[in-house]
């Protein structure tokens, strides 16, 4: 009798364990499904977030993701501060003190050559080793890569200007005219070096500030973009659509 009761109890315990395993497995599967749904909803929400200039990558990847991006986004504060300090010193030297570039190059060359010449001839009298002047050879590959990249961008700009001049895109035509007009006004205010220095400072400050406050800037930019599109639609309906266009010529095959 005792053996029969023990076998019944073991059978009941095994049944209870199976039931509990099924319940836990169902709970875990439901939890995983809910987590998957939450992650999917989060990803869809994240994909719907407006980003400035329609970018889909982080700011660091937009700048190339290498050392220039680290400098622009102040990943290494010493290097970024050094680059900005050198640019400021050059601007002060040429713009405020009005030092000329050719004069500066000649003075630096005279000073370096004179010091090296005197050191090379006077090392026997001062009992020091002569200076070791290294042989400098500039590699060709980086210059070729930069030149090819500049040629590609220059050809792309020429193609864009040709398309605008041929009257294919009125919107781009108005944007280029407005940009040239703004640059002409800014150019009348300051010299090219000052304009270049201002652009350099903005390139070292605006991206890092945008990366820090992008969650606040993007909604404001979205509202501004929507408003600009509304105003352009009104301008298109009242002005641009009323401009007469010439007949389209059929292309000969």
TrEMBL record:
Domain Reticulon: 68-253
PROSITE patterns: RETICULON
Bilayer disposition of the protein: Multi-pass membrane protein
Alphabetical keyword list: Endoplasmic reticulum, Membrane, Transmembrane, Transmembrane helix
Subcellular location per the Swiss-Prot or TrEMBL entry: Endoplasmic reticulum membrane
Keyword Lipid metabolism: no
Compositional bias ranges of the Basic and acidic residues kind: 15-39
Transmembrane regions listed in the UniProt entry: 79-97, 104-122, 173-200
InterPro entries, per database record: Reticulon (IPR003388), Reticulon-like (IPR045064)
Span list, region Disordered: 1-41
Official protein name in the record: Reticulon-like protein
Native source organism of the sequence: Hibiscus sabdariffa
